[in-house]
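To the wet lab folks,

You asked to see what we're planning to order before we commit. Fair enough. Below is the target structure as tokens, and below that is the sequence we designed to fit it. If anything looks off to you, flag it before the synthesis order goes out.
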């Protein structure tokens, strides 16, 4: 598998890239969050997901307060280098509501 450096990632005008988080074992999509260059670097360095919180304008180590950390197995980059897929082993629910994933609601009638 081809490897890219963080310098090849296409961050948006705000310096962010979407990161889709997927359970490495079940392949269930758990959540989507944003990463900047620093959170991506910390994710790789620590082996746990670190994101950029747009609402708080700060780094966010997933599970730092809840204990629901996500141990990183692999970080993949899509063909355009503008979206990340983060494969994890989750220690608990991904959603702040307590749901296993953030996609527990349906849209439409």
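Sequence we intend to order:
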């Amino acid at each position: 598998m081809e490897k890219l450096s963080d310098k090849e990632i296409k961050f948006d005008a705000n310096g962010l890239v979407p990161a889709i988080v997927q359970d490495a074992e079940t392949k269930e999509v758990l959540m989507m969050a944003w990463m900047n260059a620093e959170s991506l670097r910390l994710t790789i360095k620590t082996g746990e997901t670190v994101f950029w919180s747009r609402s708080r304008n700060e780094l966010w180590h997933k599970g730092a307060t809840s204990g629901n950390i996500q141990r990183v197995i692999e970080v993949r980059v899509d063909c355009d280098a503008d979206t990340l897929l983060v494969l994890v082993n989750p220690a608990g629910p991904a959603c702040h509501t307590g749901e296993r994933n953030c996609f527990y609601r349906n849209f439409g009638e």
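Structural context that might help your review: Residues 37-46 form the longest helix (10 residues). The two ends are 42 Å apart (CA to CA).

Thanks,
Computational group
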